[in-house]
Amino acid sequence: MALDYILFAIASRGYADTLCTALLEDAFLRALRPSTSLRSATLAFFELYSKCAAVRLTPALYQNLVSSLSQNDKAAVTDALRKVEAAVLLLAPFELTFTSAHYEDILISLIGHWMSNVRSSAIKYLNILYDGCDWQISQPHEPVIRVIGQAASVSVTRAAGVALSLDLVSPLSSSAVRHDLNRMSISPVAAADGDGTVCFDLPLFWRSGFYDWRVVVVGDDFQSTPFSHPNGSPYQGRFIVHPDVRSDCIHESWPDLEDAKWHRTTGELVQRGSFATVRANLDKYKQHGVSCLYLLGVVERDPLDVSNHGMGSPFAATDRARICTSIGGADAFRELVGSAHDAGMSVVVDSTCRVSASHYHRKYAPLLCQFVDSDGRLQAHYGTDGKSVHWPDTFLLNYRDKRAWDILISDIADIASSFQIDGVRLDNAHAWPILLPHDLAELGREDPDGKPHYDAVEILRGHVVSLEEDTYSVYSDSPYPNPMLIKVCRSLWALFPKFIIFSECAQHLERNLVVAGTIPYSSTLPSAINAAFGRTVLSDGSVLDTRREGVSSLLRWYDEERTRLPQDSIVVHSSCNHDTHFPAFLYGRGAWANVDLLFFLPELPQTFIGEFEGLSSKVETLLAKVSRQRKRPSAVAARNDVHVKAASDGFHMDLVSRIATSEPEQQYRKRLGPEYGFDLRLISGHYIHRAKLRKAYPLLTSGAMVLATSPLFWRRQVCLKAMGREGFNDSVLAFARVPKSPQTAVETIYSPDTAAIMPTDRKGPVLYEFLVVAISLSEEAKRFYVDLSNVSKHLSGIARDTVFEFADIISLTDPFYLDYDELVDQATCLLQPYCTVCWRVRVFAMADLQKELIASSVERMLTTTVDDFGHGPVRNNFLYRRILNAVASSSVSDTFRILASNVSVDLIPFIAGAVHKILYSLVTAGYDSAVILGLIQYSHCSRLTDFAGIAFSHTPVHLRAGFQPLCSKQTSWDPLS
Q: Which of 145, 432, 555, 559 has its CA 20 to 30 A from that of 62?
């Protein structure tokens, strides 16, 4: 009845139009509230309609706003901007496509405005327009990253008598039913009457998107107001949900180079790859654990472009919505995608913000960015990242024009819908949108008749740009997310709920790409690895030897990069790409350690074509695509030559050719020492094994990273007073991968593919599980100590009366066991050059593994010299501590009786050797030897007196006083021989 009444009132007053339809749902919901009368709901509807109708963009209002905003009058610009902001705040919640699009058009033009405060405001209000609510009006959301299939919860502390609810803006699923609701309210799980914490559980995320939430106070009239922090800011946030890619292994391939062959002498291309060649290699990629195939150069290129040995640049697209015909065309690509899906691989392709400088599609012609050359002629602007690099074989589009945004999204969507690809990689996304300053002199030019040459819309959109200044940037002008990337993500996810959106990143701007909804392809880890190995790659591709920074560079990377990112961020890192050298060339023997860094650190690993084969120089497979980029020229030089296409990449290609000629591939491989295990022909198996480990152990893909790198341990003759510590071991990176939810055991996934590399013995309930990784970056064998004290905070729910089982999942050697105190002190290991250990640490109750713990303690004791007792990790050895405490408390008899009940007969001689070392260290430390062995003598346990006597037989003669009663118990067997 309420809805019928409102519809009748609308019809009778002539309000039946698009705006009325958008507002109807809100009015209907108001009418259903118990405290709201039908009359008041109807009046509220008409009042809101009148306000919205007043800001609807008529042609006259649009021209008035554009004219004011394009002036060089700050007062006029400010006044017009306030009108735009007010209209966006009013219209944003109702998704008025026609009206909002016009305001969006204006705001997109304003993000390149010459006034910085206008740019900042435009970025903020574009976010509000895309959000569909004004929750970010005072401050941007701090997002948390999740993936499809995960759940989330929000907890808040509130006072007694305060009724809270959680408002959510985004499509969600509820139970088994999927909804596409713009908004929903969630009640707390438990609402206590008094003070306390209430929790709101969100349903499982079933599609990618931005899920904005706000905690509100619900009043008696069912009206809600934001619930605020003590500092006054609203309690709100955002979940950014991606497809579940955390366990993916990504492989980058340029189809042209799949199984391509080059002439050894001339470097000419002899055999070129295609989509069919990639398809034939899918089985090989599957064997290497590849689950996501990123294909470079898929879209149509200039067929007449003879650069790159006739292949053309993969980034110079003539049509971003069509498939490249020269490597197979649409049908071959469709078959490749289908085969990849059958093999369990997703397929991702490239998209760029620039287009080919020649033979580009007609749809881009009105959108080309232009500048005036030194002769006063308009020229299309070359492709650029806006900072230091340009690509003369491409043209830049004008991204102050909303049409450029829309056509980019349309191009990606066309390929996605036509070929069922799974995602896109946005090239140079850290610089999107490229916004060069207006050429105010040209835009203000008058024609001979005295009238302006450019109209207000062309001026506002920066129809002509200047080369004299640097670019404007959305990431420096505003703390809000990049609105262009926000729109790309929202638009694509609305069409394809599980679409993967990667974004290339440089200039340390990973955070900006994460908060905008993309998964960045970062270059920071490869740079840190280069520094660790003492290698520097210059912009022209040449490589210099520098001082090896070792682990320090990796720790600095972790501190500077990972700690700045939002919670649970997903980042892609590669060991090389189409612009850099292969790891084998950069690191030599260290290529093996590089693989372990790539697969064991908390990032998504991405490999490159030819990397699995252990190639050292890309002259074998990638002579064509080396760096086509050049440093940005001066403005004067650019004006004269920017429209002239670069002739070649000779400087870089000559460099790579010289590298290859100076030391051929086979000679380089021999120099690494295949006889010592560094055979590049076999490194493929290393990639395969590490990919299997990532698949087998979920902690390698989803576990949090905890640093566990310890100071270097020196023998007592070097630094006894410092307990054997001297400086920092800069050759071994050690870290733990722990569950992100404390007190949660992680069950290992067993499958036919991984069973061969995973021990399956079970000794009892696993209380907790984590991984410890140590990677050597040294050319020499290194003994190091892993400091796990940082892990102890993750064990707060674990009782101290537990045993920790360390099993190396790489070498599959017999496990060793520690108790809690020895765990958090230090664990020791000897690493061979460029080798890695990866311990799976499982926690069991003491009763389940006490015998194994004692045996492991004895083994470690026997490999330790007496001089090291009381120093370093030995002081916390389980057996040593038990006997030391027993002597101090005169309870040796009880302690030995417990030990005896937990050891087998064949272990007694070995315990005797360990006890000998302990007794000797105690006597030399001042304990009364007669008292120690006297206590053992009267323990009434023959097994104990046996190994005590054996231990006594190896005690120096001058320390045997008072031990004669036990001599008759000695045996002739020498446990230490």
A: 432
d(CA 505, CA 389): 14
Q: How far is CA 320 from CA 28, 410, 429, 437, 619, in A?
A: 44, 9, 16, 26, 29
Helix (H) or strand (E) holding 804: strand 802-808
Q: Which residues pair with 234 in a beta bridge?
A: 228
- Give the H/E segment covering residue 558: helix 551-560
Quick one: what percent of the chain has pLDDT higher than 70?
67
Task: For residue 212, give the nearest of 531, 481, 603 by alpha carbon.
Answer: 481
**Separation CA 193–CA 201 (nearest Å):** 19
Strands 732-738 and 704-707: antiparallel
Give the Cα-Cα-Cα angle 193, 198, 201 (nearest 5 degrees).
Answer: 135
* Spatial separation of the C-alpha atoms in residues 500 and 506, rounded to whole Å: 20
Nearest to 544 by CA among 556, 525, 554, 531: 531
Instruction: Tell me the three state secondary structure of residue 872.
Output: helix
The three-class DSSP label of residue 513 is helix
259 neighbors 621 (Cβ within 8 angstroms): no
Instruction: Please write the tens of the pLDDT for every residue from 21-79.
Output: 555 555 555 544 555 555 566 656 666 666 666 666 778 888 889 999 998 889 999 99
pTM above 0.90, yes or no: no
Dist. CA 860–CA 365, nearest whole Å: 74
Picking from 418-427, 464-473, 557-566, 800-809, which range would have the lowest pLDDT averaged per residue? Answer: 464-473
For the chain, state the CA radius of gyration.
34
User: Quick one: which of 400, 407, 485, 509 has its CA closest to 127?
Assistant: 485
Q: Which two tokens stand for residue 633?
A: 């020229």
Taking Cα atoms as reference points, which of 135, 713, 132, 136 lies closest to residue 123? 136
Closest CA to 313 of 627, 644, 656: 627
Distance CA 484, CA 323 (A): 25
Q: If you write DSSP's letter for every residue of 254-303 in order, what string do you get?
A: -GGGTT-EE-TTT--EEE---HHHHHHTHHHHHHTT--EEEESS-EEE-T
Q: What is the pLDDT of residues 110-149, one digit of tens each?
A: 998 988 899 999 999 999 999 888 899 999 999 999 999 9
CA nearest 285: which of 753, 687, 751?
Answer: 687
- Nearest to residue 954, comparing CAs of 929, 969, 976? 976
Closest residue by Cα to residue 747 from 766, 761, 763: 766
Rounded to 10 degrees, the C-alpha dihedral 441/443/448/451 comes to -130
